[in-house]
Amino acid sequence: MMCRDYKNGKRHWLKKAIFFPIAVAAGVFIFGNLVMYLWNAILPIVLGVKTITFCQAIGILVLSKILFGGFRGGFRGCRCHGGGGGWRGKWMNMTPEEREKMKEEWKQRCQPSASEKQE
Known about the structure:
Blueprint: H1 2-46, H2 54-69, H3 86-92, H4 96-110, H5 114-118
Helix pairs in contact: 1-2
């Protein structure tokens, strides 16, 4: 029994080891071509910049990941998508009185100010 589980686990990791590099290469190819196509289709006409090659498109992708995405790995580090944290968790732990108070505070914040009403 133990040998069968070991072999199945080994096959599972072998499939992952083969699939992962292929998936990464396909993603780089697809997104690189997409960036290159969009850049070359839009920016030379609108801004008068030069067209770019595939390698330059990959460089732009890497640079944008560094500048805007960091190295966190997507949304895994964000607590705003469920998981019991954030506003949803706070709201669920409030008493009905606290919820009403919070609703009233947000109504006050969202109402237009006196100067906006006069315009």
